[in-house]
Each structure stands twice: as C-alpha cells, then as structure tokens.
Sequence to fold (293 residues):
Amino acid sequence: MRSSNPVFSRRGFSRDNGYAGFNAQQPQAGGPAAGANPYATNPYATNPYAPQDAQLGAPAQAPARPGAMTIDDVVSRTAITLGTVFVTATLAWFLLPVDPANLGKSYGIGIGAALVAFVFAMIQSFKRKASPALILLYAAFEGVFLGVISNAVSTYVSPGVVPQAVLGTMAVFAGVLIAYKMRWIRVTRRFYGFVMAAALGFVLLMAVNLLFAVFGGGDGLGFRSGGLGILFGVIGIILGACFLALDFKQVEDGVTYGAPREESWLAAFGLTMTLVWIYLEFLRLLSILQGDD
Fold:
C-alpha cells in the first residue's frame, strides 16, 4: 500500500527482502514513493506474501527475518525526528526575536529555513534509500521555520495559540490512530484515490490563492481569511488526518511484509511531515477564529 504526504513527496518502502514497495515518480505533493505523484500509478503494489484482497483486510504476515523493521524502530526514529523539530523550533523562538526591529530579519531566516527544508526533502524523495542525515537536516530546518512563524503568530496575531495548535495536532494524531487500530478507518484503493484527488485540488487552490496574493495584494481570493479561511482550515486538518491514516497503513504494511529496518526512517519522515502540515493548519485556523472574536 502506498502512502502519501500533502507537503512533500517521499520514497516508500522498497521491494528489497520480499517487501513490495513503490516505484519512483515525479516529486510533487505526493507519496513516499521517490517523489511519487499522489494521483499517479497504482497504490497497491503486489507483494509475494499479501493476499489478493489485502487492501480490504489485515495483510498476511511475512516470515520474520533479522533486520526487519518493527514498530519500535518507527517509534524511536519518529521520536528522534520530531525531537529535532522541537529543539530547533525552541531555539529559533528564543534566538530569533520577532520584535519590530528584528521581525524582518527573523522572518527572512524562517522562510529561508523552510526553503532549505524543502530542498532536503526533495533530495530524500529522489534517493533510493533512506538517509537519516537528510531527514534530520530537514527536521532541523523545518523546526527553525516553525519556531519563527509560531513566535510571530503568537506575538502579533493570537497570543496563546501555539499550545492550542500543538494540543489539536496531538488530538488528531491520537484520534486517527485509535480509529485506525479499531478499523473504523479502512484504507482501501477508493480511500486512497479520494484523498489524493482532494489533496490535489486543495494544493492547487492554495497555489492560485498565493499567486493572487503576491501579484494582487491582500489575501488573494480569500481562502485564508474569514469564513472561507475557516472552511479551508478545517479541510486542511481533515486532509492531514487522512494522510495520517495512509501513513499508519504504510507502517503496518512495512512491519507485516518485513521491510528493511532502515526504512523506518522513511516512516518517521512521512509522519513528521504530516504532523507539521496539521500543526500549521491548526495554527492558521485558530488564528482566524481568535481574530474574529
């Protein structure tokens, strides 16, 4: 089963050691396949151990092998990656002040860090194997961006919104995990296709809105303020939750089919990007809601 992320493309599990994974595609708002396009190729690669209807139920268990990925591997790598984001975000919050005299400089550094993080994510998406160094560099620079933008929003837009956004992100993660484990969410081919189509439409609309904002001034088409901003903020969070379900499916299949242990870094990479997406959508949505009070 192929999983995807709405922020950056990433490579999924390989076919090494009996686990059938994903083929490389172009890098754009897509899945863990090396820059997989979210609306291209078949999301269900054939696995020598998987039954024909694996997407409709629990996949068959592959024989255990030394060096295969485990849930503990995914948890530990995800903790390291998210910990890197948290540490650099905290440092950026305190070392890059957003007072009027330094706001422009700090904001420029934050945007630059976001672009560097994007580059590292794209490089990783083209690599055939996971690179822990690239993934941690992505996390470090992404943290700098989050620290600056969060500090600026908390200072000038909505004081106290950052803890609320963090709690909201944690709640979505826990809720989707519980729903997935209870099989209330079933990741099927149809589910995958619906999420990819919705994500594509969402990203295109946001890109158009950004272009109108850059060249026309103001808030572009109004997708990020007022009633439309609230609506699209909710849609963004729902999409993030759907991508979490796809990420959980990726992890489950990787463990079940015996993906190599180093592939757990890819799972951590994907989960981190999805959580960053959800956090930013919460930050934007709560800012709009509090600003309207």
Notes: The radius of gyration is 19 Å. Helices lie at 71-95, 103-126, 132-156, 161-181, 189-216, 226-256, 264-291. Confidence is low (pLDDT under 50) at residues 1-58.
